[in-house]
Amino acid sequence: MSLPQPLMFTVGMIDQITKPIAKVSNSLNGLTNDYQRGTMKMASGVAGIAASGYALQNALMPAIEMDRALGEVKSLGVRESALKQLTDTSYEFALKYGKSSTEFVKSSYDIQSAIAGLNDADLSAFTLSGNVLAAATKADAATITDYMGTMYGTFKNEAESMGKGEWVQQLTGMTATAVQVFKTDGKKMADAFKGMSGASKEALSDQMAILGTLQSTLGGGESATQYKAFLGGAAKAQEKLGMNFTDQYGKLLPTIEILEKLKGKYGDLTIASDRLEIKEAFGTDQALGFIDLLSKDTDALRVNMDALGKVKGMEQAEKMASAMTDQSERLSQSWYVIRAALGSAILPAFNDFVGLIADMGSGVLSFTEEFPTLTKWLGYAAVGVLAFVAAGGLISVVMGASIMAMTAWSAIIKTGKWLNAAWTASVTVMRAAMFALNLVMAANPILLIVAGITLAIAAVGALIYYWDDLKASFADISWVNVLLTGLEYAWKAVEFLFAPLLWAIEELASLAGIEIDTSFEGVKGLIGLEKVPATQPQASSIPSIAAISPVQSRVERGGITQQISNANQQKSTHIASVTINPAKGDTNYMNFVEMHS
């Protein structure tokens, strides 16, 4: 069965248009897919290279960080043997106390800077003592390292005579004991000895006991200030007080002995005049405060001095550090130490390889300086490749945007369908509501009155329209007069009782296009009747029905409904169509069909 010629023309035209479009679309889709596959492969390759490099660097990071820290210490002229021993000591410290081995090595930089001439064992011993003391006294390694340098500068002779390694262990144990006994911490003790600046020549144990006792009520710096004020005013005070505070060589007696002498003469310093005399003798309030605080219990002070003097090693510091060790930190540092130890074995090879790649930078720089033109064209080529990649990316972006637009359009269409369905449902509900409202309104008595008025208007209109036929049927005029008389009285009663209703009838009739006078005269004029005189003989005359023209109404026969129908019949429908038929003959022509209704 052959298709009609117009349909064949339409199908052919669509086919001629859609085929090239389909080819172009397929080409673009193929190009986009190829570009995406190439981009994904290239991205996968780059990501693989980056991931392997990152994984290797992450695996070697502990060894790299340790190598950096050792490099800082090496810059101070430390031997390789000392660095090797320092590394082993840092690993042992990290495994035992769960602290950073890298920070351990970095702290040795400050030790080496403050104390020159340390051998391999001494450098490791000082660094280990400082970090153990920091862990035991809740201080940071930098603070304790600085404290070690200050103490070595103050008690250098004792350290040299005793041995640096042994002396630093004693210092560590003594400091930890003082922190425990006097309820202080490593930072306060470091601040106190730093504030002293070698002002006292007493034994380390005596100074530590005095400063520790002062720190029960004062800070580290304030305790050093009071101690220095006391020492500075003791030589002058002995003359004013008539007391002797020096030995046979002119050296100042130990602080504990001076305090005992003052306590023996003035007691517990509760008398105001005694306090004033001591203040004027020593010259400062700080010195008075120092004497007032320490002279109250010189026996306890002497006991603490003796106890600190008996400390020889760092056992107390190790106990305190072990008690505050977090086992989860130990586990973490164990894994770190293992990676650092394993990485250090292959780190030299890694450094050589990375260094070789870094050296290529200088080669590239030399090439660009020697061949500037070639470098320029290579740069252009690189820019061209990047531009090509960017163009492909742009195509992918456009295709992706079109897909997103179509998806969004589909979503809009679906939303429109949902809204249409919702609107249909709402209209159905509104219809049901209107039906219910009509039922309610119909049950309202006021509506019944309005309906009655409407029927009355319709009846009056029908009476007007059919009045000529009704008059022709009247045969006796006398009864008409009687009827009119009765109607007049009845109508007056209606006018009196239903005046508002009659007014409403007039207004509603006016709205319907009918002019009505509801008075009795108006009703008579409406129906075209006059009273017939009683003396007039009925047989000799034609019934005297006045030929008064009825009120001209705009309502035709059939009423308002007929008017609406006539108005609708005046409308017409015009349908036109054009058919292009190129198949008949050589000349194109069109068939024009026009329909009227």
TrEMBL record:
Record flagged with keyword Transmembrane helix? yes
Domain Phage tail tape measure protein, residue spans: 94-283
What's one Pfam family the UniProt record gives for this protein? Answer: PhageMin_Tail
Q: Where are the bilayer-spanning segments?
A: 377-406, 418-440, 446-467
Q: Which UniProt keywords apply?
A: Membrane, Transmembrane, Transmembrane helix
InterPro entries according to UniProt: Phage_tape_meas (IPR010090)
The entry's protein name is Phage tail tape measure protein
Q: Which organism is it from?
A: Pseudoalteromonas sp. SD03
